Amino acid sequence: MNKITIISGSHRKGSESLKMSKVLQARLEAHSSCDKAEIIDLAEVNLPFWSESYSDSEQALIDKVGAQLEASDGFVVVSPEWHGMVTSALKNLFLLFTSKQFAHKPGLIVAVSAGVGGAYPINELRTSSYKNSRLCYLPEHLIVRHVGSIFNGKEDDDKKTEAYIDKRATACVGMLLAYADALKTAREMMPDMSEFPNGM
Ligand SMILES: Cc1cc2nc3c(=O)[nH]c(=O)nc-3n(C[C@H](O)[C@H](O)[C@H](O)COP(=O)(O)O)c2cc1C
């Protein structure tokens, strides 16, 4: 059984990324290999920017989120496309937390766009957030385009697109949980990398 953490990368309150995070959460919780799926909404969890020192309250929040990530068997990283980028809050999360929390655990990337965007966050995360964290992104991802037209529970939602994204999301969740099971064994078999704490 797996515990999955969903990171909703938008720091806009009530974001579409959070809406999609809740859809993914429901699909995860319906799966027999998942016993818990929790959302970290970066619009609500106000992590401080990475710094060389923190106030006591900032440190307490960092420790709390760090412990939650460390206890996870896998991750869903949901990012809106903002000016062709992932959000600064999400990049900051990958500065604050690294291999202790993420190493050799699977990650499903979900990109969210109000229009036809969504490719850039996939590219950015695959390029720049795994080197030192050693987070293993799945060879599959989800791009949710025209996100405003689906999963609103309204009559005029685009039901055809919603059904298609739902089907793909359910398949992605199954893949994430299969890797979460398999990578537990991989973590037990890892060579000692203490001489190389960071990726090359
Ligand atoms: C600052 C900003 C920049 C944005 N830039 C893009 C963009 O480059 N491409 C795109 O497809 N959508 C862009 N959008 C629209 C988002 O796709 C839209 O807000 C969508 O709902 C996902 O963001 P959310 O999770 O914050 O709701 C931008 C939105 C904001 C607030």
What does this structure look like?
There is one protein chain. Helix 1 packs across helix 6. The chain is 42% helix and 17% strand. The protein has helices at residues 16-29, 56-70, 88-96, 99-102, 119-128, 159-189, and strands spanning 2-8, 34-41, 74-80, 106-112, 136-137, 142-144. The protein has a single domain, classed as Flavodoxin domain (Rossmann fold, 3-Layer(aba) Sandwich). The protein is α/β, with parallel strands linked by helices. It is globular. The longest helix is centred in the last third of the chain and has 31 residues, at 159-189. Strands 1, 2, 3, 4, 5 and 6 form a 6-stranded parallel beta sheet that branches. The chain contains 6 helices and 6 strands; from the N terminus they run βαβαβααβαββα. The protein binds flavin mononucleotide (FMN). Residues 10, 12, 15-17, 80-84, 112-115, 117, 147 line the site of flavin mononucleotide. The site of flavin mononucleotide has 16 residues, from helix 1. Keywords: Flavoprotein, FMN. Pfam families: FMN_red. Residues 3-141 form the NADPH-dependent FMN reductase-like domain. One of its GO terms (cellular component) is cytosol. This is Flavoprotein.
